[in-house]
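Entry for the shared binder. Reason: the reviewer on the internal report wants the predicted structure included alongside the sequence.
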Amino acid sequence: MENCTKDYNMLQDGIVLFQLIIYIPVLSLGIPLNMIAFWVFCCKLKRWTETRVYMINLMVADSFLLFALPFLIYFTMYNHPIDKLCFTIQNIYFTNMPMSILIITLIATDRYIAIKFPLKAKILRSPLKSASICGFLWITLIIYSYLGPKFHERKEQFCLQKQSIQPNYSLLFSIIFGYFIPLGIVVFCSVQVIKCLKKKMARSPHDTKLIQKAIHIVSVNLCVFIVCFSPFYITLLLRFAVDVAGACSLLSEVRASIQICACLANSNCCLDAFCYYFAAKEFPEFPSLFPTCISMRSKMKQSQESQPPTAQVMTSTRCSAP
């Protein structure tokens, strides 16, 4: 174990330098971008919507993550011991990154419901329901981040640095349910939304420009999500495999990879504000792209109610979901 730690210590100076190169621009951009996003979503928008609720919660999570970044650099640079400060920053960090991922997942799901099921969306979606879901997630993650370390023995010496090769099965749980399942949901919902938008573009050439912007924004958000978070969680999964196998020779390289990929994952806290600000600017509500479809379905429903049963069956066979 001492040899593993010694190998990592040789890489530590390079990791700290890399963190400074990434985090200084992230802090310089992330703080003003999040302030602008707060101003837009809290002050400029007149109506409370599901998107507005999710975005405010996302900005809160990203702001706390930005607050933790200087401490991450300090902990790596000076091998800070585990104390109350470490415990506080650790809880902030391990609450707000998963929260950002889950809120992005909720935004993707909300888009999917709004476009794929525009009529049912009026029942399934509401700002109050969105706020309730976010509140539940905040409470759950705060409790998990606080109680999680108490369920297994910790033998670490330094803050946010796992030196032992004892497998942490709660980490595997967090990787699967905290990222890979949300990743599948985000990919599925985003792909379905893009398909629906392309179908709408083919039917309505006069809305082509607006729909192309919507497709571009959804695609960019999906790419940013995958590029930022996937390397970090893949390396965490690799670390779990190294611990299970007891491969001490690979430990220093994997630890260094986690620190480097964490920089990329943490940079998402300034990219979120940039991406979703333009999303709100271009099209605040996805259903606005489908007014014709919604009104047409309402008229069809009214006409079906006035038709005899035979005519209703014939009409229903010609109507399919978007």
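Summary line for the report: Confidence is low (pLDDT under 50) at residues 282-322.
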